[in-house]
Specification:
This protein has 171 residues and is mainly alpha-helical. Helices cover 43% and strands 6% of the residues. The protein is built from 6 helices and 2 strands, in the order αααβαβαα.
Length: 171
């Protein structure tokens, strides 16, 4: 048993060491030669969105990137819903406003998603079994959005506060 634990640690160390970047390599892309590392290092949460839709093709690509995230035993224990329907987002926001009436005092408040024209919801089973998997999925989506130049922000409080909402599949 002890050998197996050490073996796992050694394998991880070997994998990580094979990915190391030499410090004397030429750096591009704001100091990072690797595009993935550049994307990770430049990612920021931006909460000001343009009032213009995100194409369904791009939303589909983002979800596909998310679904390709690693997950425990490839169970894929998540549910994903993409909402780009303004009236549906407004309906969810009405529930939020009823529970948080002070938000109406904010002149910039349009909806609970910081006025985003599209929202990707990721849900895990109620027992919490796939929370890490959902986090990995969300990270893939966020990094893909960053690489495409989209403004993005992660809001985990919404997923905790509104787990009782059932979101239908919208196509």
């Amino acid at each position: 048993m002890k050998v197996n634990k050490w073996f796992g640690l050694v394998c991880i160390a070997a994998i990580m060491s094979s990915c190391a970047v030499s410090s004397d390599e030429k750096k591009e892309n704001n100091g990072y030669e690797n595009d993935v590392i550049k994307t990770i290092m430049e990612r920021r949460s931006i909460r000001k969105y343009q009032d213009k839709p995100v194409s369904r093709d791009i939303l589909q690509t983002l979800v596909e990137c998310g679904v390709n995230a690693p997950n425990a035993v490839n169970r894929q224990q998540w549910q994903v819903r993409v909402v780009d329907n303004a009236s549906y987002i407004d309906g969810i926001s009405a529930v939020y406003k009823a529970a948080n009436p002070k938000v109406e005092q904010d002149a910039d408040f349009k909806n609970m998603f910081r006025n985003a024209p599209a929202v990707i919801f990721i849900a895990s089973p109620k027992n919490g079994a796939a929370q890490v998997d959902c986090g990995l999925m969300g990270e893939n989506i966020i990094l893909a959005a960053q690489s495409l130049g989209l403004v993005r922000v992660v809001s985990t409080t919404i997923s905790v506060s509104y787990t009782h909402l059932t979101l239908p599949t919208i196509r």
